[in-house]
Amino acid sequence: MRSRTVGLSLALAALAGGLAAQQRPQGAQAAPGAATAANLTLVYEREVFTYRGGDRRDPFRPLTNDNEMGPRFESLQLRGIIYSTARRGSVALLGDGDGRVFRARVGDVVGNATVVEIGPLRVVMAVENFGTIRQEMLELQRNQGAIR
Predict the structure, then answer these.
(1) pTM of this structure
(2) Where are the alpha helices (DSSP H) in 24-145?
(3) What confidence tens digit (pLDDT) does each residue in 127-143 have?
(4) Are 84 and 47 in contact (CB under 8 A)?
(5) Alpha helical stretches, state H, 24-125
(6) Are the C-beta atoms of residues 137 and 125 closer than 8 Å to each other?
(7) How far apart are CA 105 and CA 90, in angstroms?
(8) Which domains, from first to last, does the chain contain?
(9) CA distances from 144 to 7, 20, 81, 82, 105 (A)
């Protein structure tokens, strides 16, 4: 910060010296020790920042990118469940606001949520928002998943 102040002071002194020389009468001399435009150099300095990226994320990239992440949990709806007693046999059918349907099993990630448990009428999901994880539950509405 000090170098900016010095550079600015020199620039102002040069400007003042130039104005004083213009306002002086034709034969008058400058005062001893006064700055003149001939013996001053203007120096412009600026701060330079470096960023050693390495394996760190790009600081200018957004924290979330909807295209890469998929749908947000808030927009998901439970459309149906294909239930099985096998460990990863159950499948949850999740829909988003755009009409897309996602088939998810236990452990699958859909957007910012991970499927934790699939029951006959409900799905438990771990939802992550900026590092905090909470559990949410989606339930089938009556007759929503029934085959007619």
Answers:
(1) 0.51
(2) 66-69
(3) 998 889 999 999 998 76
(4) no
(5) 66-69
(6) yes
(7) 6
(8) 71-139 (2.30.30.830)
(9) 74, 88, 10, 13, 19
